[in-house]
């Protein structure tokens, strides 16, 4: 009977997230992740075909976790105005609860080597992005924002603005202030009315 692996994928990806949060994508190497968890470097290659696969998995796991919560918030509200406010708050609240992952998401997929990802990894990323755009478009339509300017306003209110607030504090190495969710919601409401 084979011995169970000592280090599972989530442990390795958790270490990769911590490395990315403190040193950016260049800090996420096969040997750095192995060293961070005390694993032999060879064990990394049993789980990832190489650094591009590692970078893809750490990016995708993080963004998919964020997107799952974002979609749940959007789907959980029948009133589009409440859904919009909740979505804006979610960006900040999720970032507060997951500061390392939020720091990672301040980069983009390109910073995590998207050009070198496998077709499967690229497809996962594209599907997630399409789902977000579809959700935002549907919400925009229910809010009466049916032209390009209106859709841009919804994206600004529910994505760009909350992320800019998160970015300012995380890049400065400071915790998000207690009023961050309220401020983000107020600004989203102002943009959408």
Q: Can you tell me about this structure?
A:
It holds the Pfam family TetR_N. This is TetR family transcriptional regulator. Residues 6-66 form the HTH tetR-type domain. The chain has 193 residues and is mainly α. The chain has one domain: Orthogonal Bundle (Tetracycline Repressor, domain 2). It has nine helices and no strands. It has helices at residues 9-23, 30-37, 41-47, 51-76, 80-97, 99-105, 119-142, 148-171, 180-192. Helix 2 (30-37) packs across helix 3 (41-47) and helix 4 runs parallel beside helix 7 (119-142). The radius of gyration is 18 Å and the shape is elongated. The relative contact order is 0.12. The model has no long low-confidence stretch (mean pLDDT 94).
What are the SSEs and their pairings?
Layout: H1 9-23, H2 30-37, H3 41-47, H4 51-76, H5 80-97, H6 99-105, H7 119-142, H8 148-171, H9 180-192
Helix pairs in contact: 1-2, 1-4, 1-6, 2-3, 4-5, 4-7, 5-6, 5-8, 5-9, 7-8, 8-9
What helical percentage do the residues reach?
A: over 70%
Task: Kindly provide the radius of gyration, computed on alpha-carbon positions and rounded to a whole number of angstroms.
Answer: 18 Å
What's the CATH class, please? Mainly Alpha
CATH fold-level topology: Tetracycline Repressor, domain 2
Count the E strands: 0
- The figure for the number of domains is 1
Question: What's a quick, concise take on this entry?
Answer:
Keywords: DNA-binding, Transcription, Transcription regulation. The chain is an all-alpha fold.
């Amino acid at each position: 009977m084979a011995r169970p692996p000592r280090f599972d994928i989530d442990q390795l990806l958790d270490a990769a997230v911590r490395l990315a949060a403190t040193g950016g994508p260049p800090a996420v190497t096969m040997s750095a992740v192995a060293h961070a968890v005390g694993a032999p470097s060879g064990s990394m290659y049993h789980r990832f075909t190489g650094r591009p696969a590692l970078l893809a998995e750490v990016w995708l796991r993080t963004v998919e976790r964020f997107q799952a919560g974002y979609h749940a918030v959007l789907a959980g509200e029948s009133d589009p105005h409440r859904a919009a406010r909740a979505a804006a708050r979610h960006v900040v609240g999720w970032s507060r609860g997951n500061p390392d992952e939020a720091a990672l998401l301040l980069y983009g997929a390109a910073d995590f080597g998207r050009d070198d990802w496998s077709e499967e990894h690229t497809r996962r990323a594209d599907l997630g992005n399409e789902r977000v755009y579809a959700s935002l478009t549907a919400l925009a339509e229910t809010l009466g924002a049916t032209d390009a300017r209106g859709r841009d306003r919804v994206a600004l209110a529910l994505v760009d603005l909350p992320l800019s607030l998160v970015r300012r504090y995380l890049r400065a190495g400071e915790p998000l202030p207690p009023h961050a969710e309220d401020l983000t919601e107020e600004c989203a409401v102002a943009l959408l009315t």
